[in-house]
Design a protein that fits this description.
Two copies of one chain form a homodimer. Chain A is an all-beta fold. The first copy, chain A, has one helix spanning 13-16; strands at residues 8-10, 20-23, 29-33, 38-46, 55-63, 70-72, 74-77, 83-87, 93-98, 113-117, 122-125, 130-131, 135-136, 140-148, 160-163, 169-171. Helices cover 2% and strands 45% of the residues of chain A. The first copy, chain A, starts with 7 loop residues before the first strand and ends with a strand. Strand 5 (55-63) of chain A pairs antiparallel with strand 4 (38-46) of chain B.
């Protein structure tokens, strides 16, 4: 099978807007605080997790690289909340997303996008946005802000996985 | 005036418990996800910002060091929400907090505490906890999760500053 090559685009607010928010200093609302010792890059992203009794939590994800070329065989989404990823070390990493198909049942995998994020850029996937699980190029940790459901909620309420029939695309570095 | 020396303690969950939460991998609920490529250190901290219509936001703070010895002349608190700080680079930093006095009007500045945090440790100040603004030992950026008020809310609704009459303590490094 000849896999379609997946182009790697630089991550930017404009290109990523259909999928969520880029967490970065560039273009931020800047406020000097703490007697001038701290620069606040204000409100770079919302954390949108309140529906159906959700509350925001912080976690750390420690990612390890997959074999290259990276085979894209599935995407996932969180229908009830956003999920934010911010790198804790300054290494480039990858963000793979897709729009949803017309009946909102599956990712439009012929419209996959792959973004190269800098180590000082995070992203927030908007609720319901199809995205690939964490893709790092070297072992790298992230701070995650996402949704905890109310007591008793099944974890599957906020996670949908879609597995392709085979490999949808491959990323060569 | 002879300033009381402020002892620097290592940051730990137990020592910091009266003031909030330490965001760290040690002791976490660990889950392997993403086909075994990612370790999730789950729910290290809540983000408690919902009262009076608040919503969670992510910001970046870029901190610069203050002159040494560091003069502690004020503390602040956020009555309506927690505030989480996670370092984005692996440098030690300082956390200064105090309990509140018996009528909840001011920090008990004779009970100041100073913790040395590692670069892989963040903290969440619980709502209403008196803390010093960001103290770094080298230029260092942090991801911040805190509260945005509803439209029209005055910023002072969620910020109280208490200025000491002089210098309450000094931190020598």
């Amino acid at each position: 099978m000849n896999l379609p090559p997946l182009a790697i685009e630089p991550l930017s607010k404009a290109a990523f807007a259909p999928f969520g928010t880029v967490i970065e200093r560039d273009g931020a609302d800047i406020r000097m605080i703490n007697e001038g010792t701290t620069t606040r890059f204000h409100a770079l992203s919302d954390v949108d997790v309140a529906r159906e009794g959700g509350t925001p939590i912080l976690s750390i994800f420690a990612g390890t690289p997959r074999p290259v070329p990276i085979a894209i065989t599935m995407l996932e989404r969180h229908p009830l909340g956003s999920q934010s990823f911010m790198p804790l070390s300054d290494e480039d990493w990858l963000v793979v997303v897709a729009p949803t198909n017309s009946d909102d049942s599956a990712p439009a995998f012929d419209a996959l996008r792959c973004f190269s994020a800098r180590g000082d850029q995070g992203v927030t996937y908007a609720p319901g946005v199809w995205h690939h699980p964490l893709l790092v190029l070297a072992p790298q940790d992230f701070l995650i802000a996402d949704r905890a459901g109310p007591a008793g909620e099944d974890a599957s309420a906020n996670l949908t996985e879609y597995w392709f029939d085979g490999v949808a695309a491959a990323i060569s570095l």
